[in-house]
Design brief:
Chain lengths: 608, 129
């Protein structure tokens, strides 16, 4: 029995309909701990080199961690790892809500979907009862309708993860929706689920999780809750959630505006957190065990609709980045993406690119199915989201992601495809924020912010500075922050409330019986980071330094307006950032871990 | 003394349910908690929480007198005397008297330990007279 774990790995072979349950290997729990650690372990070990992301060889690996479902101030994080159909590399998307806890209570640490079902199915798990059931009545429907039907059919105790038409139709950035508004959003994890013909996972677990020392655990857990409740920022943070940063980003020039041509938006003020709270928020909506829920549930009177969110990232990408300044319009666009099953960040990225191409005359109405894609045209955006999810007409081009769409259209539009490694950049404009720029360049899934949210550090030490300390900060954050995804817990209690992270050490020890310091955990994080890098190289022959380059906009086109007007990072500084980063990581000049680094991290067995 | 809830402040996180099961059963299992959370989504988008008012109707209904008062003024289930007859369940006006034979060999209810209050980050729960 593994204390702190569900105890088993469940494999579902969709091709044959066979289920296999095996005990969670103790050595994998020791070395990779859980969550995204388990994800990259199984991906590297089991998915063959060169596997088609949408083919039967790829797997979708869904994992909880030792803090998931526990008294751990936010043990609600579930990792979805796969080979990405958007980027061709590593994808790891984190889902909040209640799913990860339920998975663990069903005794499962990793649920691995393999093969391809001959027909649409949904996976039904009720503790030890596991079945593949016909999903024909649900295929083609939106995520909300399907989740509601399953809740009514099976009861409130069941937790549901469901794809929308976007995942069914093979949109490269389709997501998986859960709890009416939480998503495993990035990298096309929903696309892979759709390719496997799995419409939904319906799940209930009623088992108690074994722990090493229940009384010590209870006290350590209570101490973390007390720290959060005593934190100065609790009330303010909980009131606004991630939207607390909209105004700050606008003021410092980090709010992506009109496809990242600027970092401040003249219509930004009506998107700020307090405006949203007052106009549309009706309740806080927490992930599992969270004392400071960032989730905001909103009602849009104009549209007579409800949505969870919008979060900061969505406000950035489906608001300022496409010229929309009304919070109800942004929230409605968010709802359409959630229901149709596509990632709001990537959707905002490709639509922003399309609008810029349209404004520049590279695309015309003849290309856009007659849609007038001028900045801020709300109805055109709604129509385009639908077209993308259904891969209809012009939407089919955007459904491939901004990198491929720009390659097809050409005419210079590649220069304003704002992405790294094929993933659309999330909502921080990085014209003059070198640590955050480096974080995007080197992020393990493409241009995503949450591994290393370094933008506040840029402002702290001087945003244009290119110094080893910044690089070291980015690396430390990349090793440390993703460990929360490994543990199956949320990082925001540490990030936003500033609670002492040492409080997690006795908690983890009392749950698992294994003593680990944050130093130990960061070493695991470093090892995982290197392993994901090796995975990219394994899957892409020409992988290397050029894959780490940001959109050229950030070193060639200073914004004309806003807080960062006239500011830019020089190309030579971009290269210096990479040089320093590779050196500090123990990687060669092409960005590959050196043999010495591989040996030091004991990763030899994963290379050959 | 009794437990109170303001459902409008509840965010549905279930920290209270975990803390409850840890105190009641010394187990990590929110299915074995003595609060009743009912989410209403996607519309109207509200959480409804039911908690024990310590009204004592369950104790009145119990044929084996297994439900007794503790030093905090809370009714608790004496596990040795409960025979799982379920007579208490329909008597509870708040639907917070639990019998699930597949999970436990006795009924359970709130015994006013207060741990749910201690972990609630949005102050939706409190104990008062």
């Amino acid at each position: 029995m593994l204390n702190g774990y569900g105890g088993s790995i469940l494999r579902v072979n969709l091709t044959t309909g066979k289920f296999t349950k095996e005990p969670t290997p103790a050595n994998v729990a020791r070395d990779f701990i859980g969550g995204r650690g388990f994800g990259i372990y199984f991906l590297t070990k089991e998915v063959p080199v060169g596997a088609d992301p949408l083919g039967p060889e790829n797997k979708l690996i869904i994992s909880s961690g030792p803090l998931s479902g526990m008294l751990a101030v936010g043990g609600g994080k579930c990792d979805f790892t796969t080979k990405s159909p958007l980027t061709g590399g590593y994808a790891s998307a984190s889902l909040g809500g209640l799913f990860t806890a339920e998975l663990k209570y069903a005794g499962i640490d990793s649920l691995i979907l393999e093969g391809i079902s001959p027909k649409p199915v949904y996976l039904f798990i009720d503790d030890n009862k596991i079945e593949l059931r016909d999903a024909a009545p649900y295929w083609g429907k939106g995520t909300f309708e399907v989740e509601k039907e399953f809740k009514e059919k099976f009861g409130e105790e069941f937790q549901i993860a469901v794809i929308g038409p976007g995942g069914e139709n093979g949109v490269s950035f389709a997501h998986i929706n859960h709890d009416f508004g939480r998503q495993a959003g990035r990298g096309g994890v929903g696309t892979v689920m759709g390719a496997k013909k799995v419409k939904a996972i319906v799940l209930r677990g009623t088992k108690s999780v074994p722990v090493a020392n229940v009384e010590t655990y209870r006290k350590a857990g209570m101490a973390l809750y007390k720290a959060c409740k005593d934190a100065e920022g609790l009330k303010e943070w909980t009131r606004y959630g991630t939207t607390i940063v909209v105004s700050w980003c606008d003021e410092v020039g980090a709010l992506p505006t009109r496809n990242f041509t600027a970092g401040s938006f003249e219509g930004g003020k009506t998107l700020y957190g307090p405006v949203m709270r007052e106009q549309i928020v009706i309740t806080d909506k927490g992930c599992f065990g969270c004392p400071c829920p960032c989730g905001k549930y909103s009602s849009m009177k104009r549209y007579k609709s409800f949505v969870e969110g919008p979060e900061y990232e969505t406000i950035g990408l489906l608001g300022a980045n496409i010229g929309i300044s009304d919070i109800q319009d942004v929230a409605q666009a968010n709802l359409l993406c959630d229901d149709l099953g596509i990632d709001t960040i990537s959707a905002g990225g490709v639509i922003g690119w399309a609008m810029e191409a349209y404004e520049k005359g590279i695309l015309t109405k003849a290309d856009t199915d007659g849609l007038d894609l001028k900045w801020g045209n709300v109805q055109a955006v709604f129509a385009l989201i639908e077209k993308i999810a259904r891969k209809q007409g012009f939407g089919a081009l955007l459904a491939e992601g901004v990198k491929k769409a720009a390659q097809k259209v050409g005419k210079g539009s590649e220069k304003f495809a704002i992405q790294v490694k094929g993933m659309e950049q999330s909502a921080y404009a990085t014209h003059n924020a070198t640590a955050m720029l480096l974080a995007y360049m080197t992020c393990d899934v493409g241009a995503h912010h949450n591994r290393s949210w370094a933008i506040t550090y840029d402002l702290q030490v001087g945003r244009d500075k290119v110094v080893p300390e910044k690089v070291a900060r980015v690396i430390w954050l990349q090793n440390f922050r993703p460990m929360f995804d490994v543990l199956g817990s949320c990082r925001l209690q540490w990030v936003e409330l500033g609670i002492d992270r040492a409080l997690y050490e006795p908690l983890l020890e009392s749950i698992t019986g294994i003593e680990r310091t944050w130093e130990d955990l960061e070493a695991v994080g470093n090892r995982i980071w290197n392993l994901t890098r090796l995975y990219w190289a394994r899957e892409n022959e020409d992988f290397g330094r050029s894959w780490d380059m940001p959109a050229s906009r950030f070193y060639e086109e200073p914004p004309k307006t806003g807080a960062t007007a006239g500011q830019i990072t020089k190309l030579e500084d971009v290269n210096r950032l990479l040089d320093m980063y590779y050196e500090q990581r123990g990687w060669d000049a092409n960005g590959m871990p050196t043999p010495a680094t591989i040996e030091k991290l004991n990763l030899d067995t994963f290379v050959n | 003394m009794r437990l109170y809830v303001d459902s409008s402040k509840c965010s549905g996180c279930r920290a209270c349910l975990v803390a409850c099961s840890l105190n009641l059963f010394q187990e990590n299992n929110p299915k074995k908690a003595a609060l009743n959370l009912m989410p209403h989504f996607p519309a109207p988008g509200v959480y409804e929480m039911k908690v024990c008012t310590q009204c004592g109707d369950c104790a009145q209904a119990c044929p084996t007198e297994a439900i007794k008062l503790n030093e905090r003024g809370g009714y608790y289930v004496d596990v040795d005397e409960c025979n799982l007859c379920e007579a208490c369940v329909p008597e509870c006006p708040e639907s917070v008297m639990f019998v699930r034979a597949e999970l436990a060999n006795h009924a359970w209810k709130c015994d006013l330990c207060g741990d749910c209050v201690a972990v609630c980050g949005t102050s939706a729960l409190w104990i008062g007279n």
